[in-house]
Amino acid sequence: MSAAEAAAAAADNVVIRDAVEEDTPRSVELFTYGSLAEGKEDPAEVALYRSALAEIDRGPGAVLVAEVEGQLVGVCQLIVFRHLQSRGGLCAEVESVHVHPDYRNHGIGTILMRAAVQRAQELGCYRVQLTSNIARPDAHRFYERLGFEPSHRGFKLKL
Ligand SMILES: CC(C)(COP(=O)(O)OP(=O)(O)OC[C@H]1O[C@@H](n2cnc3c(N)ncnc32)[C@H](O)[C@@H]1OP(=O)(O)O)[C@@H](O)C(=O)NCCC(=O)NCCS
Questions:
Q1: Which helix (H) or strand (E) holds 101?
Q2: Tens digits of per-residue pLDDT, 107-142?
Q3: What atom in ligand 1 is closest to the CA of residue 111?
Q4: Fewer Cβ in 10 A, N or C end of the chain?
């Protein structure tokens, strides 16, 4: 089977699971492919990412990965936090959604995002939210198709 055929069949064979430590280098690789800012991610600093994953695993959130035939091809992070408003409800935020360039447009991102939303529901969250860089109109279309409404403007202050 050619690489293109393997990618086309990928959505049928995709497995979504929680990331484990061994997934860290490949996850960083996926972040790097999809990054808008060169140098933002540093594969040489994999220890920092490993320790971040260990900290995430101690909390209610998760890093989910998409695997096709043993190869990690997608990743996203689900952050879960307590609101004071909304009767002290639990809220979730999705960050760092990336699919390997060779596997895009085959439905893997959709499956990964649905799994993240389902996890948020299972954890009792009343809402899932996300921000996406204004330079990513293709990603915005992807999120809207999944039911996310572009109802707010995101603001960032770099520290
Ligand atoms: C966005 C992304 C996770 C979607 O994963 P995917 O497996 O390609 O998604 P699906 O196959 O389920 O859905 C396809 C849709 O994804 C979006 N998409 C495809 N390629 C994309 C790309 N290079 N960049 C951004 N979005 C893309 C499009 O909306 C596409 O639908 P279309 O037919 O209307 O063009 C993936 O394309 C990606 O990693 N993009 C680069 C990084 C990125 O933009 N991440 C989101 C940060 S907020």
A1: none
A2: 999 999 999 999 999 999 999 999 999 999 999 999
A3: 12
A4: C
